[in-house]
User: Fold this.
Amino acid sequence: MQPILEVNHLTKHIGPLLVLKNMSFSVYPGEVLGLAGWGGAGKSVLASILAGIQTPEEGELYFDGKRIKWPFNSRKFGFEVIHQEPRIVEGLDICSNIFLGNELAFPQWQNDKVISPQKKMDLISSEILAKLDVSLPSLHDDITTLSIEYRQLVAIARAMIKPSRLILVDDTSALLGYHYQQILLALIQNWQQEGKSIIFSSNNLDHLFSVTDRIAVLREGSMIGAYKTDEVNREILVADLVGTTDQQQITPIIWALDSYYRARERAEVLRNNQILLERDLAARDSLNKQLLEQLNVQVLALDKANTALQDAHRRLLSNREDERKSLARELHDQTIQDLLRLNYQLERIEENEIEASPIKERISNIRFDVKILIEELRRVCSNLRPPTIDSLGLGSAITSLVDGWRERTGIPISLTLDENLIRLPEDTELSIFRIIQESLHNIVKHSQAKNVEISLRHTTPRTILISICDDGVGLPEDFNLSTLASNDHYGLLGISERVALLGGHLNIQNQKIGGAIIQVEIPHPRSKKKIENTE
Assistant:
C-alpha cells in the first residue's frame, strides 16, 4: 500500500542545535500514527516542517507519492496541522479565527434560500463547536476573551472546516482538560472511521495506546523505533524514551508516569465535575432568576389588580355613604318634617274634639304612633349618617352612638376618647364610626355581654388605635376570619375590609378574663383641627 505521507531523512538545525537528525517515517491511508517523545525530542519542529512553515536542511517529503518542496501550504494537499500552541490571530473574533484562511466570500445556499457569507460561517462554526461541546456567548467576541483551553479548541475547530485527508495533532491535549481530552480522542477515532489519516503526537502513553495503530518513538531529534500498538508495551516505549533497558531505571519512571497521569486524570475529573456543577448552578440561578422575574411580573399584576379592586371598593363605600347621607337628609328634611306637620295638624284636631269622644281617643293613638315613627326614622337617619359627625366631629358622633346604644340595649358601656384626638379626613372618620357601629351590633347579636368598653387613643401622632372589648361568651375556638363570608357572617368581614382600605391592622381575639376584643390600628394624615371630647 502506498503511504499517504512519506518522510525521508529530515535534518534540521536551530542555530548550532541539531533538533532533527535523519528523520524518516511513513503514514498510511486510514492509519493513526502516534509520536511519543519527551521535551526536546523534536516533535513540534517536525510538525512545523510538515506544515510547510519551516524548511529542513536535508530530506524529502512525499504526499500521495508526489514530492513536495518547501515552503508550501499544507492545506492545498488536504493536510491539516493542529499545533501544540494554538495559532490564533488576536484582534479577530472567534468565527474569523475558525475560518482563518478558509473565509467565504460569496452568498451561500441554506435550506433553499440564499444567506450571507458571514451567516453561513456562523452556522458552520456553531455546528463544529457543538461537536466539541463548546458553548460560547457569541462567535463575534474577540479571540483574546477566551481561555487558552478554548483557544486550542478553536484551533481544532479550524481543522474541521474543510474536508482533509491527513491531520497532524501536535501534543494538543496538553492544553486541554480531561473532558476535552476525551472529546479529542473520540474525534481522532471518528476521523479514522471517516478514512482520514492522523499523526497524533503526545507525551501521554495512555492516550497513544487508546487510539493509535502504530507508535513511533522520538528521542533527541532521532526516530528510535516504530511499533504496532498491539505488539508493544510500556516498558519498551519507556526504554526507547530514556535510552536504557535497565529495569531499575525504567520501572520507577513507569511508576512515576502512571502516578502522574492518574493524579492528573483524577484532578481533571474533579475539575470537570466542578465545571459541570458550576454550569448546573448557573443554569439554576438563571432559571430561578427567570422564575423570580415572572413572579415579580405576576406580583405587580396582582398588586395592580388589588389596587384597582381597593379603589373600586373605596368608591363603592364612598358612594354608599353619599347615598346614605342623601337618604338621611331626605328623610330628615322631607319625611320627618311631613310627619311633624301631620302630628301638629292632628294635635289641632284633637284639641277641638269633645273630651272622651271616640274620635279624640283614636286621634291620640295615631299621634302616639306618629311620634314613635318619627323617633324610629330619626334613629334610622342617625344610622344612615351620624348627624353630628360633619359639624362636631368623630368624638361627638361616637358619643351619641354609644349613648343611644346604651339606652336601647340597657348594657353598660364606657367610652374613653383621647383628649388630643384631632379631626381626621371624612372617609377615615366615617370608617371608624362604621367599625364601632358594626362592632356594637355584633356584641348585641352574638356576645351576650354584660359590659362593654370602647377607647380611641393616639399611639403615635400619625396612628390611632380603636379598642372594643366585652365580657361576653367570646369567639368560637375555630374562629377564622376568612370563612365568615361562607357562613353569612358579614359584620366582621366588613370591618376587616374597611381596615384594609385604610391601610390599617385588625386584631380580633379572646381575652384571658373572658369575652372578646377588637383592636384596630389606623394610620392617618396630619390633621389641622382638634376634636372636642364630649364624653
In short: The longest helix spans residues 247-352. The chain has three domains: 5-281, 282-385, 393-535. The longest strand covers residues 17-27.
